[in-house]
Amino acid sequence: MAKNVNVYSTPTCPWCVRVKQFLKDNNVVFQDYDVSIDRAKGDEMAQKSGQMSVPVIDIEGEIIVGFDKERIKAALGL
Questions:
Q1: N- to C-terminal Cα separation, the chain
Q2: Could you read off the pLDDT of 19-64 as tens digits, one per residue?
Q3: What CATH superfamily is the domain 5-72?
């Protein structure tokens, strides 16, 4: 079953690029929010994660800050 996955990122963040490529490589459908231009999503990300660093990945409500491959795999059941 597909999980609801949101990625909060910026275009200049190398870890954001890696997270999105990892998800694509594993055929995970996700919504990407560019918090450098979408202030509302930036505020939402800060509220969920408690910080302003990217990337922040929201997998069915589980918040993962940074490219923590093992936690992402576990949350997705990969």
A1: 12
A2: 999 999 999 999 999 999 999 999 999 999 999 899 999 999 999 9
A3: Glutaredoxin (3.40.30.10)
For 48-57, write each residue's pLDDT tens digit: 999 989 999 9
The structural domains of the chain, with segments of one domain joined by +, span 5-72
pTM above 0.85, yes or no: yes
For the chain, helix, strand, coil in percent to 5 are 40, 20, 40
- Whole-number Cα distances in Å, 44 to 6, 17, 54, 75: 11, 20, 13, 20
Instruction: For residue 57, give the nearest of 36, 1, 22, 12 by alpha carbon.
Output: 22
